Each structure stands twice: as C-alpha cells, then as structure tokens.
Amino acid sequence: MTAAEVRPPADPRAARRAGWRRLKQGPGWIVVVLLFGVLLVFGIAQGRDARTPEERVEELSKQIACPICDGESVFDSRNPTSAAIRNELLAQVENGQSSDAQILAYIEERFGEDVLLVPRAEGIDALVWILPVMALAGGVTGLAIAFRRWQREGGLEATDADRALVDAARARETGFDDEAEGARG
C-alpha cells in the first residue's frame, strides 16, 4: 500500500459517505436483518415464563380445535367433548409431568392431526411460519437493490426529441383552444 491509499480523504463528509457506501455494500445488511429476526424470535420465546396451571390450560385449549364444533377452539366451545378435553388438559398440567408440546402431541394423537389450530413450527409445517418472513425479506431486499440502481443512474435529462415532442403537444393544445374561442366569439 502506498501512502496515498492509506491517507483519509481531506473532506470529512466524503469520508462519512465512503463509510456508508461500504456499509451498504456487501452482506452487512443481510446479517443485520437475520440478527434482528433471531433476536425477535428469541424475545418472543423468552416471554413465556412460568404460568399458573389455569393459564396453561387456557393457552393450550386456545390452540386445540373442538372435534365437534367447526372452527371453534376448545376454549370457546361449550360442547361436552370440549369440556372433557379441558379437564384432560388440567389433569395433565396438574400432574406436572408433561410439557405443553407433550400435552398437545397427546391430544393430537388421540383426536387426529387436524385438531391443532396453530401449525407446529417444525418439519414441513415450519414453512407456514418461515415463507412469509422470507418473502418479506426478499421483497425489501429487491426494493433496496432497485432503489440503489435508480439512485446510481441519477436524474434523467430530456433530450432534444423529448423537448420537440412537448413543444408540438403544447402547440396543438394552444391551437385547439384558439379555435374553440374563435368559434364562440
């Protein structure tokens, strides 16, 4: 490296702009977006601390569809089958031997896989959660790339042919207005 390559630019604003350009280029933004997503998911997961058994049963029953009622959760349904499921949930929660995932797996095994209202975030069902986020990230990235290209291209200037076209249109417009006024007066 020569001394000219190491020396910072004389204008501090130019140095800042050069730093921002380097930051905007490359995979830096992708890393920031991925880090934000991971922290968001981690924060949401950490918000679910210890709960009372009643709160756990309520939360679990909101995730299970009533096998008899169409489109209604076990929590909302007053059907005897839903009441039995709620009682089963309470019994399993009070035993303290089952996690929420194990309880949901037991209910799913007993009543079928369509009983869960919220798709699992594992296996092929994880796509339900991942694809919208990926589509949003792809759209934002595409827009950022398009805006950067448009910014690099700079403003477009009118050519002589464009000016001639506008002048011809103005002349025609003015001519029509003159003819209309002449016919009236």
TrEMBL record:
One of its GO terms (cellular component) is plasma membrane. The chain crosses the membrane at residues 26-45, 126-147. Belongs to the CcmH/CycL/Ccl2/NrfF family. Keywords: Cytochrome c-type biogenesis, Heme, Iron, Membrane, Metal-binding, Signal, Transmembrane, Transmembrane helix. This is Unannotated protein. GO terms for molecular function: metal ion binding. It holds the Pfam family CcmH. InterPro entries: C-type_cytochrome_biogenesis, CcmH/CycL/Ccl2/NrfF_N, CcmH/CycL/NrfF/Ccl2_sf. Coiled coil: none annotated. It comes from freshwater metagenome. GO terms for biological process: cytochrome complex assembly.
